[in-house]
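User: My instructor asked us to take a sequence, write out its structure as tokens, and then describe one feature of it. I'm not sure where to start. Here is the sequence I was given:
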Amino acid sequence: MKTKSNHTNFNRVKNSALLVVMALLVTMSGCKKAIDIKSTRAVDEVNMWNKLEDTRAALLGVYGLTRAAMVDNDAHWIYGDVRGKQFVSPTRQDLKAVIDNRLTASYPTLDALSNWRRWYAVINASNIFLERVYDVKKADLRYTSNIMAIDIAQARFLRAFAYFYMVRIWGDVPFIITSHDGSFENKPRSSGAQVLAWAEKELLEVAEILPNRYGSDDPKQPGPYYNETNSRWDGALARRVSANAILAHIAAWQGDYIKVANYTTKVINDAGAAGLSITDIGTLTNSNGFFSGKRSSHLLGFDFTYELGEGGMTGHIEELTLAAPFVNKAIPDIYIVKDSILNIFNEKGDQRFGIDSLGRPTSNNYFVNFAARYPIFSKIKVILGGTASTSTSDPKFSFFSSVALFTRLEDMYLLRAEANAVVGDRQRAIDDLNTIRSNRGLPGYNANTNGLIIDAIFKERKRELMGEGHFWYDQVRYNKIKQNNKAFIDLIASGGIYWPVSPQLLQQNQLLTQNLYWK
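Assistant: Let's start with the prediction itself. The structure tokens for your sequence are:
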């Protein structure tokens, strides 16, 4: 017999699943109007853009579309973690194709991941917001100039972030900064370098406007924000540190390491004002810790808050990595082979993972079932809002609510270390690397045991940021720096680091061209 609690949980899960489905449908329809066909608005414009509640709803809707774009078909982790070959797949042929760089193979997952529609839904929603927000300012005296300026800055941030995200995946992309209400004129792809130059300019401007805390005493946005305090908004919205963090990633992708050092330093210097600090290993890997929605620790992350009915059975890394004993699933879709784990975590004292002299794991923070055929990557394991555990008597229900994280403070320290190593400031690179190492139980960097400083930094990124969608892009930057892997350098030179453009998009827009490598 099911208890009342079980019925409550089931209804919550059912409602959340419906919300996820609705979000994905909105994403798909929004993308069509932004890039393919005539625009039709889902919301009656007569009843929209009349009061400040409309701007709040519209702005949070753009955040929701951004989150959906990242996680649809587990995109963020397939683009960033699976393609880099850090993980392997025991059963899924579509994921094996990604690992083997056979991105034009005929699988629904690859077809979906080659299509940029979901990102143009974000861009179109941002464009609409930026065009219509002034109507609210005229109609509602409660909508102050300060709040409108902050709202506009966030919409510009999300639009710039969407373009940066797409350029890293496809290279050149169509550049659209108006909503194209009515008929849409097809556009060719614009140079990725030009798009990133525009995104950098946008982010530099909004960084001067955005606060580091909303609903608090931040001089950029004093007092409540939409009548709520910082406990509601901390880490949930883009802020100044978010803009500088994305600027750092743009500069790193372009190989401009002087700028990387500058932007990461701004983030690190603002960390205290933004309520940020380096996350201890327990909080980072606890099922109800960092990834469950401790939002104040995120530089940029998109939450699935279980208490608000958010989350789902798909669109989370746990769908790919977890299996028994966490969920009712025999083997994971992806895992890291034991030899690779031992090679990555090869230093004693590492709190993330290690083995003792008898070959037994010294920690379950990153992996469980190490003795089994398929070790389970358990660093991120937010099930039922982080309340489920391996001791739960009922089989674990595969409902996840982990944050879709893009970057955190540790990423900035290691990115600054990378920048300083490249420009020749070796000691500062070592200092930043040691900041992370010491917080994970490791001794300071030693060239005799850790090798070249640049190699040690990228290895530390591999350990610390595992499963967070960075690995493929790290590999591209690493090989550009090292220039000693001919096959990878050839892949970069030929454009093979990018994804193919969906044939469906090419058919619908004759001005588009396929990436040369995939022709």
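For the description part of your assignment, you could build on this observation: DSSP finds 21 helices and six strands in the chain. Try explaining in your own words what that tells you about the chain.
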